[in-house]
Design brief:
With 227 residues, this protein is an alpha+beta fold.
Length: 227
């Protein structure tokens, strides 16, 4: 590593720093997008449960007669887990088990699961209590959320390497520009000889480390001539 030119080492260091920044930023954006989409689905399920809860008590076949699509579905369960109403596409198997029904008796329960008949991919379920120990379960497919996240991840995997490549080129250009005064001093020092007394290295206008190096070398040349 130490045998590499300084500008290459600077480029590698810059690339490593940018890779960390891009990875952290991409992970944060991916998490925020997933969280935002999840919150939207949760709010939709709560709104649908609040809308259906008073209706299914007066119409025990409301869900079975509804025209709900694959993206939204529901079910009403008896205390023993039997299905008394549900949207047609999900069949007659209860969406949740005894443990979820017991927890839903004390308040809403939100969970994810897969393998629901008539619905592709994983689903999000919300179970809320009804009178007489019954449970209302509403759900929505997570397929669109998962597709959005997969598409966003694919874009990150394309944009990330491109951004890293541009960062490497930028880092190499910055390193080259920063070392240009040093290279100029090296060329000048190579041409200085005893036949040209009083010749000195160019001092950059910027008062930085390179300028101080040039001044130090000029002082050294002054002492050598005096000796």
């Amino acid at each position: 590593m130490r045998r590499l030119p300084i500008r290459v080492r600077l480029t590698l260091a810059f690339a490593l720093a940018m890779a960390v920044v891009l990875a952290v930023t991409g992970a944060f954006l991916y998490y925020r997008l997933g969280s935002s989409l999840g919150e939207t689905i949760d709010e939709g399920l709560r709104a649908r449960a609040a809308e259906l809860a008073p209706l299914v008590q007066n119409n025990p076949t409301l869900l079975r007669e509804s025209a709900a699509g694959d993206e939204s579905f529901g079910q009403v369960l008896l205390p023993d887990g039997g299905v008394i109403d549900g949207t047609p596409q999900i069949g007659d198997d209860p969406l949740v088990g005894e443990a979820v029904r017991a927890n839903a008796a004390d308040g809403e329960v939100m969970l994810e699961r897969g393998g629901v008949q008539g619905v592709e991919g994983r689903v999000k379920l919300l179970a809320v209590p009804l009178p007489a120990g019954q449970t209302l379960v509403v759900g929505a497919s997570l397929e669109e959320r998962d597709e959005a996240l997969a598409g966003f991840l694919g874009e990150l995997l394309i944009i990330g390497p491109v951004a890293l490549l541009l960062a490497c080129l930028l880092g190499y250009g910055i390193g080259t520009a920063a070392l240009r005064p040093v290279e100029a001093m090296r060329g000048e020092a190579n041409e200085i000889s005893a036949a040209e007394p009083g010749r000195r290295l160019p001092v950059p206008a910027a008062r930085d480390e390179v300028a101080r190096l040039a001044e130090t070398l000029n002082d050294m040349l002054e002492r050598l001539e005096s000796a």
